[in-house]
Each structure stands twice: as structure tokens, then as C-alpha cells.
Amino acid sequence: MKQIELKYGCNPNQKPARVFVENGDLPITVVNGRPGYINLLDALNGWQLVKELKEATGLPAATSFKHVSPAGAAVGTPLSDTLKEIYFVDPAIELTPLASAYARARGADRMSSFGDFIALSDVCDTATAKLIAKEVSDGIIAPGYDNEALEILKSKKKGAYCIIQIDPSYVPPATETKQVFGVTFEQGHNFIKLDESTLANVVTEAKNFTDEQKRDLIISQIVLKYTQSNSVCYVKDGQAIGIGAGQQSRIHCTRLAGDKADKWWLRQSPKVRSLKFVAGIKRADRDNAIDVYTGEEYEDVLAEGKWQQIFAEKPTVFTREEKREWLSKNTDVALGSDAFFPFGDNIERAHKSGVTVIAQPGGSVRDDNVIETCNKYGIAMAFTGIRLFHH
Known about the structure:
Blueprint: E1 3-6, E2 17-20, E3 28-32, H1 37-57, E4 61-66, E5 69-75, H2 81-86, H3 97-107, H4 110-113, E6 116-120, H5 126-133, E7 137-142, H6 147-154, E8 162-166, E9 175-180, E10 183-188, H7 211-225, E11 231-236, E12 239-245, H8 250-266, H9 270-273, H10 283-293, H11 299-302, H12 320-327, E13 333-337, H13 345-352, E14 355-360, H14 367-377, E15 380-383
Parallel strand pairs: 6-7, 7-8, 13-14, 14-15
Antiparallel strand pairs: 1-2, 3-8, 4-5, 4-6, 9-10, 11-12, 11-13
Helix pairs in contact: 1-7, 3-5, 5-6, 8-13, 13-14
């Protein structure tokens, strides 16, 4: 197949729309449903991300994409009981490494992942499909599906769930083009390989990375390679816990991703885990309530007449002091940036979210200030020399 006709482009008024290749056949097959323009942008970017994560770590990988940036990404490391709980993993499902990767990718930022497009590095197995079945999602791309998994996925969205299979051996042309306002842009495909060699130039007083920290820094870089710039990524235990995408200011990006990482950690606190919700509340409503409760607008869910619609018992306020004390327990977080940090304020913000290791390109006229700030907190930082802008 050389082309797929689409319902419309980015918006309903943008017709006609299609995807096609000028030479050879498309590397994808639509197994079920009908993909949209943005679905396929998410699918093809997400596939590249998980493919590279698998190659770099040797572990199955998954990502949850929304609007051409990952909301979450992870490799298949085991989940703690706490993570299983806050990710709403059905105890009856025996998690495979691929299912663990998906649970982590989907659970990191549940608000952003609502209605996501999923990419898996490996053949989708039954355990992973069972997890996906319970979440609101637009579609999935994977190199294959086992029979039971395929039947489970086909039942989503009243049979309209988008299922795409990709040829895992496909390699894109060396040159890629796109049009903007009738003008054609051309560049070389970004084939750069991100591995431990990118972490060789450590510029801080703290010099050593553990194997786990190296893995997490590599994950952060690969995630950034497929995230709309400016972007930064916080990673812990093999999964992205906070991704900031598309911000014009680097510090705003660092704050956005750090706030998401903090929310992820706050959800694991005893105070949040002990919340008692009304029977039958939907997952999305529960996720939204937790997001608001842990933020500064908590009165929106605790006000009289409102909390009764959400909680079986009215929670007490999660005070700033309580949150600060719990957040102080989050440590050994890795941070990657797609371009240099221009000022030390980014490091100050990263430190508040438990960052202990950093990988960034370097090259700012204020590198000395950034390094000095890292040294103040004992943070080890590598200059990769590699910019990872993606647009």
C-alpha cells in the first residue's frame, strides 16, 4: 500500500488529507479502525521513541503520546505495590515487562494521557491489552499483536479502536521533507544514536553515574528527541515522571516538567492514597480530583456541595508544609534537556524535584553559573554536546 486516505487533516476543515510514500510501500498496516492525521503523527513519532528505548536499554518500552509529544514513556522495569495502586493496575493481571512499561508510561501523567495514542516496542501481549482496555485511548502502534490481545483491543470504542502494525525492519530515507505555506523544507533524518557515550564529558565536581542513573539519563535524551521543543524530561526508575514540551522559555519548561514530576510523587503520598472516593466514580474524574486536590486550587474539590460529588469522606487540606515534607523524600531523579540551560535557575528548580544527575548539551555563555549551581547541590552533570530540537 502506497497511501492511506484520511478523514481530514489536523482540523475538520483541512481536506483532502492522506499519508503516502513516493517510493515503495508504507511501513504501516491499519489492522482496525480509521487513523486520523494527528493519530499517525503520534504513532510514527511514538514508534521511533520506543524502538530506540528498546535498542538503548534492552528492555521492552512503551510511550503514551498526545499532540505529537509524549505524555509518558518508560521501559519494562518491575512496579512497586504503590505504583500498581496509583496506576490502577488490576491485581488480577500478571504483568509482563511490556505491560509494566505501558503501565508506567500511561500512569506518569494520567491527565495528559487521557485519549492518548500508544506505541509499543514489542508485540502486544494479552496483559498489556488488558491494561489498555480499561483506559481512554485513541489507538496503538506496535510491531504485532498476539491473537487474544488483538481481540481485546478490537472491542474498544465499539469496535472502532485504531490499531496499526508497523514493519519493525523499516528504515526511513536519509533525507526528509515537509511543506509549510507551500514552501518545502528538507533535512537529513535524525539518525543520531544516544547511548552511554553521550555521558562521557562530566563537567561538575561530582563525577560518577550509577548504571541506573546512566539508563535514566539515556531515557531522558531519547524522550526529548521526540518531544516538541523546548523540552526537558525528568526520569526516575526507568520512566519519565515529568515532561515539559513546547515552551518558549527554558525555565518555564523546567518548571512545567518539575511540577508534573512533583504531582507524580504527591500521588504516592499516604494522604492521597487514603482518599475515599464515591462509589462508581470514573477514572478520569478521579484523576482530575487528585490533580486539583494536590494543587493550589484544592478548594475547587473541597468546597461544600462539591466534595460530596467526589469523595465519600471530606478530606483535610493537603497543606504546603505537608506537601513540602513529602516532596523532600523524592531523590535520585535524572534530568535531560534538549538544549543548554542558559542560567542556574533551571538547576535550582530541578533540585527541588529531587534531581541528582543531569545530561544537557552545554554551550551557554553562562555554563560556569550552571556548573556552579550543580556543585552547590552535589549534582553530577554531563555535557553531551548534542542538541535535540524537534519540530
